[in-house]
Every structure is written in C-alpha cells, then in structure tokens.
Inverse folding.
C-alpha cells in the first residue's frame, strides 16, 4: 500500500461518513452530495485494488496475511454500492445515516488494511 494514498483515502472516507451522518441526523434525505461522497469513496477503493495488485510486483509486498488483506479489500469494495442501493430504494433520512456509517466503516477497514500490509510479520 502507498502510505499517502491510504491516508488520503481514510480522510476522504471519514469526511464522507461524518457528512452523511450529520445530514441524516439533520433530517436530509439522500442527495447528490451524499451519494457523490460515497461514490468517491468507492472510486478510491477501486484504485486501491489496482495498487494492491501492482505493489507486490513493484517490490512492495505485504508483511501480514495477504488473504486477510484481500478479504478486507473485497468487503470494503462491496459496502458503498450496497449502501447506495439501500439509499436509492429507501429514500429516508436514515438512508443518509447508513451512507455515512458505511463510509466510516470503510475508514476503519482501510486503517486495518494498512496495518496488515505494513506492520504485521508474516
């Protein structure tokens, strides 16, 4: 993993999460802002998939369990589309909270993926 990219992803996911939770608790239904923030998190996750494929080939192998890393990454990639689908089907304020919660969960998953990649010993 690339440290600065991971830090940027965590920051974007955290901001998107706080935005979604705050707007949802304020009574706002899902809109372009909250859906767009969640979509940005998804695009960054797809870029992380590319980085995870290229990094070991470029001499940056993980120090932790690669299967655990990929399980986190695949799960994280699935969360935003599922939360977005939920928000489109059930357009209530709680759907906006779900979008925010999904982004916050992804921030935690990205932190854990970084720990698996850089800190643990194989």
């Amino acid at each position: 993993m690339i440290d600065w990219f991971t830090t940027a992803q965590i920051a974007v996911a955290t901001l998107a999460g706080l935005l979604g939770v705050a707007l949802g608790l304020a009574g706002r239904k899902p809109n372009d802002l909250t859906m767009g923030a969640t979509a940005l998190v998804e695009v960054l996750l797809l870029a992380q998939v590319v980085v995870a494929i290229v990094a070991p080939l470029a001499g940056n192998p993980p120090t932790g369990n690669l299967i655990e890393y990929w399980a986190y990454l695949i799960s994280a990639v699935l969360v935003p589309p599922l939360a977005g689908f939920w928000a489109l089907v059930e357009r209530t304020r709680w759907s906006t909270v779900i979008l925010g919660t999904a982004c916050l969960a992804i921030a935690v998953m990205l932190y854990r993926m970084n720990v698996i990649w850089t800190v643990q010993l194989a």
